[in-house]
Design a protein that fits this description.
Aspartate Aminotransferase, domain 1, 3-stranded antiparallel β-sheet, 40% helix
Length: 384
């Protein structure tokens, strides 16, 4: 039996996604910038995909710009916003638990002389709004906060931040990395006061290599790459047509019984939590219910090295993660868990389980049985 519980890293593409991509590769292969009929036909297909994305986010289609993925979306949002506002100030506010595609951009901007504030988080991985208020001033040009943390699943108070920014004399641009929240929880960019939203295709059962950035029509950011003025000049370069069409189909599928899909993930998570707690000496990292995502659980198995447990489960066809896939090959330990002030042994024994509505309860039961077996075996070995 193969049980895939690493859906925060990537998801398996839906069948209809693969079909539309194959059609794009074989039939809709023309350059969408070409003036002939075949080019115009492909351009129309991209327009359809853009509408599918906009419906899933409840925004206008002209506010959606396709990119090569979540990393580029985050880079475009941050660097584009800073470039557009650099004459108005130099303060940027983010958190210590952002994804590397955000944190590494800010490391770069710090070297350029920008005043980057990294907000602390509590033991559950949540920021303090009062600390955010303390750092807000008239020189703040950008706030970038992750919606759902990719390692522990904590949901940040995005709506409250949007309300807070309404009272600013000089309102900073508000960017949200929604790569883990898109399709997992319901939210409205317009109602939450968000200017920029990064999303990624391969987190919602679409293809890799394509993402999107929502840019509120009232928000002005600069492009960071120049060329043939595709994507209304926001993101030049010949479009990844198969990827974009696949992304559109995947986004369209989100609107079909979304409540049922979210409830399915909660059912899987609750069942997993109930059973995993029967194992002694474990620690749940982050919130368990309210305030957490329906698809992410992070557990520290004390007395066990997470990486060893991961490979042990792999032998049984169970696939999990020790943290972010973009930094899992580094041995420095999770920056998220460190920011939550967890102990070294808790960090060392941490495993992330992330579910999809395609998983089944029987898979959860099988996985927990194997987890318990290997945790007990590994603890015995460690005591020798």
């Amino acid at each position: 039996m193969e049980i895939y519980l690493d859906n925060s890293a990537t998801t398996k593409p839906n069948k209809e996604v693969v079909e539309i991509m194959l059609k794009a590769l074989t039939d809709a292969f023309a350059n969408p910038s070409s003036l002939h009929r075949k080019g115009v036909e492909v351009e129309k297909l991209i327009k359809t995909a853009r509408k599918q994305l906009s419906r899933a986010l409840a925004v206008k289609s002209e506010e959606i710009f396709f990119t090569s993925g979540g990393t580029e979306s985050n880079n475009l949002a941050i660097l584009g916003a800073v470039e557009a506002r650099k004459r108005q100030g130099n303060r940027i506010i983010t958190t210590k638990i952002e994804h590397p595609s955000v944190l590494n951009v800010y490391n770069h901007l710090e070297k350029q002389g920008y005043d980057v504030i990294y907000l602390d988080v509590d033991q559950f991985g949540k920021i303090d709004l009062d600390e955010l208020k303390e750092h807000l001033n008239d020189t703040t040009i950008l706030i970038s906060i992750m919606h759902i943390n990719n390692e522990v699943g904590t949901i940040q108070p995005i709506e409250e931040i949007g309300e807070l920014l309404k009272d600013c004399t000089k309102k900073p641009i508000f960017h949200v990395d929604a790569i883990q929240s898109f399709g997992k929880i319901k939210f409205s960019p317009a109602k939450m006061g968000i200017d920029l939203i990064s999303i990624s295709s391969h987190k919602i059962h679409g293809p890799k290599g394509v993402g999107a950035l929502y840019v509120n029509k009232s928000c002005k950011i600069n492009p960071i790459a120049y060329g043939g003025n595709q994507e209304a000049g926001m993101r030049s370069g010949t479009e990844n047509v198969p990827g974009i069409l696949g992304f559109g189909v995947a986004a369209n599928a989100l609107n079909i019984e979304l409540d049922e899909k979210i409830n399915k993930m909660w059912t899987l998570k609750n069942s997993f939590m109930e059973k995993i707690k029967e194992i002694e000496h474990i620690k749940v990292n982050g919130f368990e219910g309210e305030g957490s995502a329906p698809h992410i659980v992070n557990i520290s198995f004390l007395g066990v090295r997470g990486e060893v447990l991961l490979h042990s489960l792999e032998q049984e066809g169970i696939y999990v993660s020790t943290g972010s896939a973009c930094s899992s090959k580094k041995n420095s330990g999770s920056h998220v868990l460190k920011a939550m002030k967890m102990k070294p042994d808790e960090i060392e024994g941490a495993i992330r389980f992330s579910f999809s509505y395609n998983n089944e309860i029987k898979e959860i039961d099988y996985a927990v049985d194997k987890i318990e077996k290997y945790v007990l075996d590994l603890r015995k070995i460690m005591k020798r």
